[in-house]
Amino acid sequence: MREKHRSAASCTPPTGDVPATQVHALDRNRTQDPSVRRLTLYLLSHTAPNPPITNVRMEPGTKRLTWDLHGNVSGIKCTEGPSSDLKAKHNLFCQFYVLPKCTRTNYTIKVAVVDGEPYSTWIEYPKQEGNPGAAAEGLACEVHDKDALTCRWAVGRAAPSDVQYYFYLEDTRYTMKEGKHIECRFDVSAFYNRRQDPFYRFWVTGTSHREAIPCSELFSNLRKIEKLIAPNISATCNTSLALLQWDMSSHLHRLFDYDLEIQQVNPSVL
């Protein structure tokens, strides 16, 4: 017998100009029982009669959040998700340098109006497509063993049976589980030579003949995800001197603090 699942309905605010909202009691009717009143509340969203900015949009090519300016404003700031405010350039656009490909993100524009009330509006970008539950889950990447970069993910809980996932760089060394790609590994040297302090986007796309599969993404600095290993130590000893040497074990980190601990061990236990 097939088990049925009931999905909860969600209320998503409309995209576009979103000024203040008001709740109005529009209809108050008596029922047959005089002591009971039926109160119908309507949540009304109204737009400002003359908004200082309109046609808010994201331009993926230039990575600019832009709009049409109409009013006399003293300043405009943009906010990407929970990030801090970014000052608009010439009050015409906000310049971003990295845009999400997979994660729907809220972009809020706050406008300071000359001799007027502050104004705020927002949009969401990018447009969400496909079944979110079919996307690769738990995407995580790790630099390890000095030279290797491995990214792993799990099959989406609501993914169709024919789903297949692909890392953003085609790589032949996929790890398979029940016929699905769940891991990709390659040499980190392909990355660390490009920039001194690299910051990258990792993302996994999906394909299926049944439905569209959303992508999953991860933004990270390679240094942040590196799992450091202990250096190789060599020792040269004589009756009066011991010389210990070790090699740095990272392509990404340049400054290390080492703690050297010397313990006296009973030779009989060796």
From TrEMBL:
- Tell me the Pfam families matching this sequence: IL3Ra_N (PF18611), IL6Ra-bind (PF09240)
UniProt region (Disordered), positions on chain: 1-20
Which residue intervals define the domain IL-3 receptor alpha chain N-terminal in the entry?
Answer: 53-126
Q: What subcellular locations does the record give?
A: Membrane
Tell me which InterPro entries the record gives: FN3_sf, Ig-like_fold, IL3Ra_N, TypeI_recpt_CBD
Q: Topology relative to the membrane, per the entry? A: Single-pass type I membrane protein
The residues covered by the Type I cytokine receptor cytokine-binding domain are 139-218
Q: Does the keyword Signal apply?
A: yes
List residues traversing the bilayer: none
Q: What is the lineage of its organism?
A: Eukaryota, Metazoa, Chordata, Craniata, Vertebrata
User: Highest taxon of the source?
Assistant: Eukaryota
What is the official name of this protein in its record? Interleukin-3 receptor subunit alpha
Gene Ontology CC annotation, any one: membrane
Swiss-Prot/TrEMBL keywords:
Glycoprotein, Membrane, Receptor, Signal, Transmembrane, Transmembrane helix
Annotated signal sequence is none
